[in-house]
């Protein structure tokens, strides 16, 4: 699919000049270096993480077949879904917070769309050269060189995309074993499918769609304005300083001639991956990549003007020439909420007991009256050892005087991750029964690990007293 | 090559603008992509609560499926559902004008004169 094709004979839409393909000019500078750093770091984490082991196991593994998540020595179970929901809320709120302070920082430096697009563009530059050489190559008739260059690019792209897909699956199914299965061609059908699916998505999104995803498909890009205010840090062109723009000689005193600092070289437009002109003001298409800042700074250097005709600033700061205002009601509220959520998360992870107990009443009989005058209730206890090592447990009953617990199985030692159903009976003399239903609590403690305990509540049922 | 002092490309004619996508293409992209994102989240939530292995064999057809198959079917099933929802929403929004111009309401045969989405005020391409 070529998303950039324009139907023949159609006039350009709005003020955008329709063209067949984007050949954004390469940029160097402070922010380009920063982004390269972010790309290397983030991609590094992504590709390396599945290969790191922690305590004899893959450090980060969302083991879907086993339904367990391992994250650096902590094991999460489906029962811990609460933590995942909490994390998602924290992530969303962080995004609001960062956006309120610094605009689309996420888009420019951390969004997977940006990061992989950047990586794909490196490969493109490596094989096909700079933007002008790429344009010439595309216009030239097919030749051996063109074939070689295009072939090399596709080879790198497809290989990288495939590797990305395999790595992705490596987060969900142990990476080393997965790789072993790939090497011996014994990959399962679903694993193969997901490797290809994610690889294909990477290829399509980073190789072809690129900024079109940001412009047309990204929900965040659309609702960003709800998080912006006049003090949000955005990339802006200082019109007060730049206008009236125009070409001039390098040595000329442009101020005396009534001209602003913008030399109208159009470099900022040429480098823009979304093809907008930042001099027309903040636009929804701007993904805050800062390419226009870098290029304009280099132009300013060349003209021996001050840098920062295009810069990170806020609407208020630029118009009223005052320093940036980070502390505002909005950012304080977001920040405080975020802190509370983070602290709560850390606390609940800290006190989380890797042990779970459920008590289920025997569904068939409410109670049984035994020959000796005892009333008996049967329960099924479900014990879950969520710790990374095995434990021996002691079971206790908290109930009124006279009630006793009988367990059939002896030796409650559970391996890491083991789930065991324990049938138990609770007995009490009929005379001791004060009501038809009595709340009881089962408690389980790990031997030799103080504080590691869990309890489950249930109800003891008997005939109404005095009958 | 990026330093304008060395590259000498400073007067290069501009011509690197990406084209604007057609309305129908934008709608399609939105439907596919947004339903994909919501289906991913829904899959996570659903399978955190439900083990596909538990469903296996207990469905009407008595199918036995592995967890991995269960996950995959769940994801694509949810994607289908969110996709249909997105599509219908977009469809209803886009055809609002046309429905209002329906001859039965206004007694005018304007519906024939209005091919597809030409009544759409957001339409950018001629
Ligand atoms: S205007 Fe274009 S080049 Fe400048 S930051 Fe926005 S997207 Fe990047
Ligand atoms: S790069 Fe700077 S000087 Fe050149 S056109 Fe853009 S704003 Fe003006």
Shape of chain A: elongated
Q: Specify which chain pair forms the largest interface.
A: A-B, 55 and 39 residues
What's the total helix number of chain A?
Answer: 15
Round the Cα radius of gyration of chain A to an integer and report it: 32 Å
Principal-axes geometry of chain B comes out as: elongated
Beta-strand portion of chain A reads: 15-25%
Report the biggest beta sheet of chain B as strand number plus sense, adding barrel if it closes: none
Overall tally of structural domains of chain A: 2
Task: Give the proportion of residues in helices of chain B.
Answer: 55-70%
> For the residues shown, what is the average pLDDT of chain B?
70
Oligomer: heterodimer
Overall average residue pLDDT of chain A: 83
The helix-and-strand class of chain B reads: mainly alpha
Parts with pLDDT < 50 across at least 5 consecutive residues of chain B = 1-16, 107-121
**H/E topology pattern of chain B:** HHHHHHH
Which small-molecule species are bound to the chains here? iron/sulfur cluster
Which structural class should the secondary elements of chain A be placed in?
Answer: alpha+beta
- Output the number of helix runs of chain B: 7
> How many DSSP E strands of chain A?
16
Q: Low-confidence runs of chain A (pLDDT<50, min 5 residues)?
A: 1-20
């Amino acid at each position: 699919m070529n998303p950039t094709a324009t139907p023949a004979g159609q006039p350009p839409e709005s003020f955008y000049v329709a063209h067949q393909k984007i050949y954004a000019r390469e940029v160097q500078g402070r922010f380009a270096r920063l982004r390269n750093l972010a790309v290397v770091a983030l991609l590094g984490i992504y590709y390396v993480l599945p290969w790191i082991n922690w305590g004899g196991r893959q450090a980060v593994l969302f083991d879907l077949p086993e339904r367990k998540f391992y994250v650096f020595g902590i094991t999460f179970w489906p029962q811990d879904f609460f933590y995942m929901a909490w994390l998602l809320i924290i992530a969303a709120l962080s995004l609001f917070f960062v956006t309120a302070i610094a605009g689309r920082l996420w888009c420019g430096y951390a969004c997977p769309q940006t990061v992989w697009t950047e990586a794909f563009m490196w490969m493109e530059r490596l094989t096909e050269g700079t933007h002008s050489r790429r344009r010439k190559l595309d216009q030239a008739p097919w030749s051996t060189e063109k074939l070689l260059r295009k072939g090399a690019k596709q080879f790198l792209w497809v290989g990288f995309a495939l590797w990305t897909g395999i790595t992705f699956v490596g987060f969900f199914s142990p990476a080393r074993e997965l790789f072993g299965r790939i090497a011996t061609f014994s990959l399962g059908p679903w694993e193969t499918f997901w490797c290809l699916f994610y690889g294909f998505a990477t290829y399509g999104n980073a190789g072809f769609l690129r900024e079109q995803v940001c412009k047309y498909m990204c929900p965040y890009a659309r609702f960003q304005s709800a998080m912006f205010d006049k003090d949000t840090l955005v990339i802006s062109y200082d019109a007060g300083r730049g206008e009236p723009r125009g070409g001039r000689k390098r040595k000329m005193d442009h101020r005396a001639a009534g001209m602003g600092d913008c030399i109208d070289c159009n470099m900022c437009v040429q480098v823009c991956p979304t093809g907008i002109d930042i001099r027309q003001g903040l636009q929804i298409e701007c993904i805050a990549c800062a390419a226009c800042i870098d290029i304009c700074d280099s132009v300013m250097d060349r003209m021996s003007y001050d840098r920062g005709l295009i810069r990170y600033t806020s609407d208020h700061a630029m118009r009223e020439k005052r320093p940036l205002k980070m502390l505002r009601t909005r950012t304080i509220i977001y920040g405080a909420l975020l802190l509370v959520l983070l602290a709560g998360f850390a606390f609940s992870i800290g006190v989380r007991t890797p042990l779970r107990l459920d008590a289920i009443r025997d569904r068939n009989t409410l109670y049984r009256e035994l020959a000796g005058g005892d009333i008996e209730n049967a329960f099924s206890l479900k014990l879950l050892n969520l710790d990374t090592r095995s434990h021996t447990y002691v079971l206790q009953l908290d109930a009124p005087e006279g009630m006793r617990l009988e367990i059939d199985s002896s030796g409650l030692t559970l391996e890491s991750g083991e789930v065991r159903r324990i049938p138990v009976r609770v007995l009490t003399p009929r005379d001791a029964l004060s009501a038809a239903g009595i709340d009881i609590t089962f408690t389980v403690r790990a031997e030799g690990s103080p504080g590691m305990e869990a309890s489950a509540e249930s109800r003891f049922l008997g005939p109404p007293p005095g009958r | 090559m990026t330093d304008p002092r060395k590259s000498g490309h400073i007067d290069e004619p501009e011509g690197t603008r990406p084209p604007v996508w057609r309305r129908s293409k934008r709608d399609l992209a939105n439907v596919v992509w947004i339903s994909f994102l919501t289906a991913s989240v829904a899959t996570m939530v659903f399978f955190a609560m439900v083990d596909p292995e538990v469903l296996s064999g207990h469905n009407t057809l008595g199918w036995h499926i592995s967890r991995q198959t269960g996950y995959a079917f769940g994801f694509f099933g949810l994607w289908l559902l969110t996709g249909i929802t997105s599509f219908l929403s977009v469809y209803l929004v886009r055809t609002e004008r046309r429905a209002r111009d329906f001859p039965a309401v206004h007694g005018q045969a304007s519906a024939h004169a209005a091919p597809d989405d030409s009544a759409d005020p957001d339409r950018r391409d001629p």
